[in-house]
Amino acid sequence: MRRGHNLGAVGEFNQAVILDLIRRAPDGLSRVEVAQASGLSAQTASNITRRLIDGGLVREGERLITGPGKPRTLLRLNASSRYTVGVHLDPTVITYALLDLAGSVVADHRARTPTAPDPAGVIADMAHEISAILERQSIPREQVLGVGIAAPGPLDASRGNVLDPPMLDGWDVVPLRDALSQATGFPVVLEKDVTAAAIAELWVDSGPRRDNFAFFYYGTGIGIGLVINHEVLRGASDNAGDMGHIMVQADGPVCSCGRRGCVGDLVVPHRIVQRALAAGLIASDSPVDRADFDDVDRLFTEFTVLAMRHDAVSREIVMGVATQISRAIVSIVNLLDVDTIVFGGPFWRRIEPALLGAIRHLVNTDPALIPKHPIHIENSGIGEDVAAIGAGCLVLDQSLAPHTSALLISR
Fold first, then answer.
1. Cβ-contact 322, 192 below 8 angstroms
2. Residue 271's closest CA among 318, 309, 224?
3. With contact defined as beta carbons under 8 Å apart, do 396 and 7 qualify?
4. Which residue, 242, 248, 236, is CA-closest to 223?
5. By the 8 A CB rule, do 248 and 256 touch?
6. What is the pLDDT of residues 112-146, one digit of tens each?
7. Which residue in 386, 370, 378, 374 sits closest to 341, CA to CA?
8. β-pairing, 188-192 with 144-151?
């Protein structure tokens, strides 16, 4: 069914378009260039830029002399005029990122996620840390647009609830969004962590390789953030991206779903650690499972150092993981016809030197690959805090970026 246009929202949409153009032009834009790039009339563009300047979001910079006539004044984003805070709740660590209006990280902080099943205590700790970050950076509360929080799924996004995510005991139907908003006094938006990571990539990089891509999130678990036609794909319940049960081999350990060969059970850090322990590459005084977060983190690092030596045993483990990830990626590429896969997450950088090249080769030479265009396999340039940064960018995106859906009449 076609939906009508909400003409009352056109003005706000045009303002968002112009702000987005200025944000993406680090060298600045003149009013004439803004009008040309936006397709708006010179008068409309001038009126909107004046409102943005009066609101403190945009500032006038140096004058540009390009020939006869009046010099052009360059407009630049006033990045220090507004801020957001992004929080990533992971089973092992809670990451905080303070972002300015440009999406640049002003400050960040990490804290170990408590193992006790106490969501209320964790939310209180989050609120305290958010206040502490703002105080340390001398950021007035009125300059903060809001808080974004990224959490593992499943989520009930409409109600702002976390619904019993894996490896977070006691988080069954927790109203995280509203509880954190009440504790901090800020508006809070809740997003699935893999979707937040994809949002971060969109906000930071607007090039053509970010029109259709998938973000492969490699942390305590794995997931996939999806972007089609430069729009994040969330799904019917905002829980798109759970790729862990794509079957990539016929045998292997039994997954939590009762089947064998699920990629999410084969390639995660604790499984790699278990294989390395069984092969005698690393040593532990006791068996290690996925709940032993500190041991997994330490032993995973030990293995990644050994993997760079390319001995036969470590190479066999690495190639097994690369093969399993590649098979899952080929399924996703065939289904969605994306042309770029971006890898990131808190565990990725350590194993990337051993895995990335192998995955790139395996994906592009897989006989099951349907699209005939090259599949670009690359690292995220954002770093390990990508989900927290994405959560902060989510607030910026919802507050400031142009979305055509805003022009449609709400049902």
1. no
2. 318
3. no
4. 242
5. no
6. 998 888 999 999 999 999 999 999 999 999 999 99
7. 378
8. parallel
Amino acid at 39: G
In eight-state DSSP terms, residue 177 is H
Residue 297: which residues within 8 A CB-CB, separation 6 or more?
92, 269
Helix axes 176-184, 119-136, angle to 10 degrees: 40
> CA quadruple 380, 381, 385, 387: dihedral positive or negative?
negative
Q: State how far the alpha carbon of 127 is from the alpha carbons of 95, 96, 123, 186, in Å.
A: 13, 11, 6, 10
How many other CB atoms sit within 10 Å of the CB of residue 409? Answer: 11
Rg, Å, the chain Cα set: 23
276 within 8 A of 299, measured Cβ to Cβ: yes
State the DSSP H helix or E strand holding residue 190, giving kind and residue range, or none if neither.
strand 188-192
Bridge partner list, 216: 224, 343
Structure-token match 């076609």, residue found: 2
User: What is d(CA 81, CA 70) in angstroms, rounded to the nearest whole number?
Assistant: 29
Per residue in 138-170, pLDDT (tens digit) is 999 999 999 999 999 999 988 999 999 988 989
- Phi, psi (deg, nearest 5) at residue 251: -125, -160
CA torsion 22-233-126-154 (nearest 10°) is 180
